[in-house]
Write a structure and sequence with these properties.
By secondary structure, this protein is an all-alpha fold. The chain folds into two domains: 61 residues, no CATH class; 36 residues. The protein contains eight helices and no strands. Helix 2 crosses helix 3 and helix 6 packs across helix 7. The two termini are 33 Å apart.
Length: 119
């Protein structure tokens, strides 16, 4: 696992930032809080996970330094797929429908895909 300073450095390199203050803005924290976290090597997990979600970055890349920064797939999705996934997220985020969606998806994930679906 990368330490917090290495994570900040990776983000700076990816975004071509000149200093940590720009990373602080991206992580929605203050420059002072970021410097303090770096000096104590204290992970700001919540900030980093929010960054992953908001910026569509891979948590494996952020925390472990492996893989590619971007989550595979979504940025290559068609407009129709993105629209559908947006609807799925709305259903998933609704506590009244989340459990049913999870059950359906888990059941469907066990069914082998045809070759045309796997492409």
């Amino acid at each position: 696992m990368l330490n917090f300073s290495e994570i900040v450095q990776s983000i700076k390199k990816l975004y071509k930032f000149n200093n940590d203050d720009e990373v602080a803005v991206l992580l929605e924290t203050t420059a002072i809080a970021l410097r303090s976290a770096k000096s104590r090597n204290r992970m700001q997990y919540e900030k980093l996970l929010k960054f992953c979600e908001k910026e569509n970055k891979s948590a494996d890349w952020v925390f472990l330094g492996r893989g590619k920064p971007h989550e595979p797939g979504f940025d290559q999705a068609t407009p129709e797929e993105k629209e559908f996934l947006d609807k799925v997220l709305k259903v998933y985020r609704n506590p009244a429908t989340k459990e049913g969606l999870e059950s359906t998806v888990n059941t469907m994930a066990k069914v082998p895909m045809s070759e045309s679906e796997a492409d």
